[in-house]
């Protein structure tokens, strides 16, 4: 009797998944991974931009301290600010995907610009600070 049951007309239900079910699940997982990567990159860009603004604020403070200790004269380069006023990484001009540049330097004025190293990858916006202490988007 058991031999006949193997040839029974009613199909038996198996416990595994079909190929279509596996493909659908894999597609959903891939879609969720792509969405999470987009959100991660947006958060990374936002964090880099915040760090760039904080870096400019650090430079502004360092420039004013340097000026106070050096007869009212601003430093000729950002590298001069290390190690007394800023760390060597920031004074090197590159940090967290942004490049810092000192320009328009005179006895009473300066401009420090923070620009993304790779536009739309490490940051979307550029920022600047001057002797007035205002950080603005460039």
* Structure classification: alpha+beta
- Overall radius of gyration: 29 Å
Question: Termini distance?
Answer: 86 Å
Order of strands in the sheet with most strands: 1-2-3-4-5
Sketch the topology as an H/E string, one letter per element. Answer: HHHEEEEE
Number of domains: 1
How large is the share of residues in beta strands? 15-25%
Low-confidence residue ranges = none
Overall 3D shape: rod-shaped
Major sheet: size, sense and barrel closure? 5 strands, antiparallel
Number of strands: 5
Query: Average pLDDT across residues?
Result: 89
Account of the protein in words:
This protein has 138 residues and is an alpha+beta fold. It has one domain. 43% of the residues lie in helices and 15% in strands. A hairpin with a 2-residue loop joins strand 1 and strand 2 (98-103). The termini are far apart. The mean pLDDT is 89.
Secondary structure layout plus pairing:
Layout: H1 2-6, H2 19-69, H3 88-91, E1 94-95, E2 98-103, E3 111-116, E4 127-130, E5 135-137
Antiparallel strand pairs: 1-2, 2-3, 3-4, 4-5
Main attributes of the structure:
15% strand; 5 strands; 138 residues; rod-shaped; 3 helices; 43% helix; alpha+beta; five-stranded antiparallel beta sheet; single chain
Task: Describe the structure concisely.
The chain has helices at 2-6, 19-69, 88-91; strands spanning 94-95, 98-103, 111-116, 127-130, 135-137. The protein has 138 residues and is α+β, with helices and mostly antiparallel strands. The chain has a 5-stranded antiparallel β-sheet.
């Amino acid at each position: 009797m058991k031999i006949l049951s193997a040839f029974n007309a009613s199909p038996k239900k198996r416990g595994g998944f079909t190929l279509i079910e596996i493909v659908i699940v894999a597609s959903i997982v891939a879609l969720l991974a792509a969405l999470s990567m987009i959100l991660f990159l947006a958060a990374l860009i936002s964090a880099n931009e915040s760090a760039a603004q904080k870096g400019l604020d650090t430079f502004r403070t360092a420039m004013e301290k340097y000026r106070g200790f050096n007869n009212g004269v601003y430093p000729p380069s950002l590298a001069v600010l290390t190690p007394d006023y800023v760390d060597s990484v920031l004074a090197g001009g590159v940090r967290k995907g942004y490049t810092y540049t000192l320009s328009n330097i005179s006895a009473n004025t300066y401009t420090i610009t923070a620009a993304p190293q790779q536009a739309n990858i490490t940051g979307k916006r550029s920022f600047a600070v001057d002797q007035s202490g205002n950080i603005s988007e460039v």
